[in-house]
Amino acid sequence: MGLTAGIVGLPNVGKSTLFNAITQAGVEAANYPFATIDPNVGVVEVPDARLDRLTELVKPKKTVPTAFEFTDIAGIVKGASKGEGLGNKFLANIREVDAICQVVRCFEDDNITHVAGKVSPIDDITTINLELILADLELVEKRITRVQKMVKSKDKGAAQELEALEIVQAILESERPARVAELTEDQLAIVKHFQLLTMKPMLYVANVSEDEVADADQNPYVQAVREHAATEGAKVIVICARIEEEISELEPEERLEFLQDLGIEESGLDQLIRAAYSTLGLATYFTAGEKEVRAWTFKQGMKAPQCAGVIHSDFERGFIRAEVVAYEDLSAAGNMTAVKEQGKLRSEGKEYVFQDGDVVTFRFNV
């Protein structure tokens, strides 16, 4: 799908440590032609127990998970919206990502200085969000000035655009992100055209110390981040970046034992990957044959031909039908023969909207 999440954060919050974990846990490049060699980009596998179950049932020669891309975005400091530090580069880079993962320091450590001299996750969030808001406000105000002139010249679409922009302007002036603005579908379509930074989905990553990761609910900083995120409808993932870096250096079989020793069921990185994936409205379908069992990413709401096109444009162009079984039905039945006997295999046409977990065989003719 080529969608990516950008990782941002102030200096010394653990952003680089987390990104190191992401790059060390990276995918085997041979399986993913889009995996770049850019040091600021990390491509990771999306953890999915369903893929393991399908592999167990089908016993293919090869299993390929779907992947997700994170971009390390440097340069955020107070004043970035006015070009301070690497501000202009930061704003340009963040404009290119589809979602933002904001790493927030939720740990005390006298050996790691904080740029503001104290640990205050809400102040950190406010600093970063305000830079994004100010950058958006500048863009919106410039556009409003132009559109007002268009309204005077009786441009039919200009009045609608002006109304939508003024709603967003009021939200930004109240120091809130544009994504919380109450817009109609038509107004949302207008505003999306401008690729505002604060329209992008935001995910907060609360970075805690090693001794707090198993019981983060007791951390007052984490509680504060969760309360703030709730006002935006944003998700919060609690991690310990240092632990994630250690885990990424272990062999797969050692990782589970390491997590169990810490009293953790799942790594923070796996939680982050899944949260970023779902925040972007992404879902997974599967193809399962003797040669290969593979997970494919699609955008929720996509129809069968578009989903076929995720594999190859020829599949979309020559789409005839999709033979579909829900993962749950295949898992319960144990094999495709039983699925067919139970009447669970469906033949779907061009209007079928794919569901997360569909196991599919495409029929096409080019």
Keywords:
flat; 19% strand; alpha/beta; Ubiquitin-like (UB roll); six-stranded mixed β-sheet; Rossmann fold; 366 residues
CATH topology grouping of the largest domain: Rossmann fold
Strand arrangement within the widest β-sheet reads 2-4-1-5-6-7
Strand tally is 12
What is the CATH C-level name of the largest domain?
Answer: Alpha Beta
Number of domains: 3
CATH architecture of the largest domain: 3-Layer(aba) Sandwich
Unreliable runs, pLDDT <50, ≥5 residues?
33-37
Shape: flat
What amount of the residues lies in strands? 15-25%
Oligomer: single chain
Termini separation comes to 23 Å
How confident is the prediction overall: mean pLDDT?
89
Give the helix tally.
Answer: 14
Q: What is the helical fraction, as a range of percent?
A: 40-55%
Evaluate the radius of gyration: 23 Å
Query: What is the CATH H-level superfamily of the largest domain?
Result: P-loop containing nucleotide triphosphate hydrolases
Instruction: Look at the helices and sheets and give the structural class.
Output: alpha/beta
Q: How would you describe what is shown here?
A:
The protein contains 14 helices and twelve strands. With 366 residues, the protein is of the alpha/beta class. It has three domains: 176 residues, P-loop containing nucleotide triphosphate hydrolases (Rossmann fold, 3-Layer(aba) Sandwich), CATH 3.40.50; 71 residues, DNA polymerase, domain 1, CATH 1.10.150; 64 residues, Ubiquitin-like (UB roll) (Roll). It has a six-stranded mixed β-sheet with strand order 2-4-1-5-6-7, with helices on both faces. The protein has a three-stranded mixed β-sheet with strand order 3-9-8, sandwiched between helices. Helix 1 runs parallel beside helix 8. The longest helix has 32 residues. The chain is flat, with a radius of gyration of 23 Å. It starts with a strand and ends with a strand.
